[in-house]
Amino acid sequence: MVTWIVIGVAVLGLVILALAARALLVRLVPLRRAVLLILRRQAEAEALQVEAQALQERMLALQTRAELAQKSIDLIKVRRAG
User: What letters, b where the CB count within 10 A reaches 16 and e where it falls short, cover 44-75?
Assistant: First the structure.
């Protein structure tokens, strides 16, 4: 009789463990999707950061060219005035 009670308690424990594991596994699917989404967004953010750096370098180069052009314009104005 005691053996059946022990077996019953063990089986009940295994059933509860299986249900808990199932609930956990059901939750893992959306978590995996969320992780993949976050990783994709991280990759997009890194790509945008690289593009932003390239644009900043291009802006600095254009600013330098604009300054040189302004100096040339100022020099031409001085020559015409003088």
Answer: eeeeeeeeeeeeeeeeeeeeeeeeeeeeeeee
Distance, CA of 57 to CA of 68 (rounded, Å) = 17
Q: How far is CA 63 from CA 8, 11, 40, 49, 72, in A?
A: 81, 76, 34, 21, 14
Reported as a single tens digit per residue, the pLDDT across 14-23 is 999 999 999 8
Give the pLDDT confidence score for residue 2 in this predicted structure: 86
Amino acid at residue number 49: Q
DSSP secondary-structure letter at 1? -
| CA–CA gap between residue 57 and residue 79 (Å, rounded) | 33
Q: What's the predicted TM-score (pTM) here?
A: 0.57
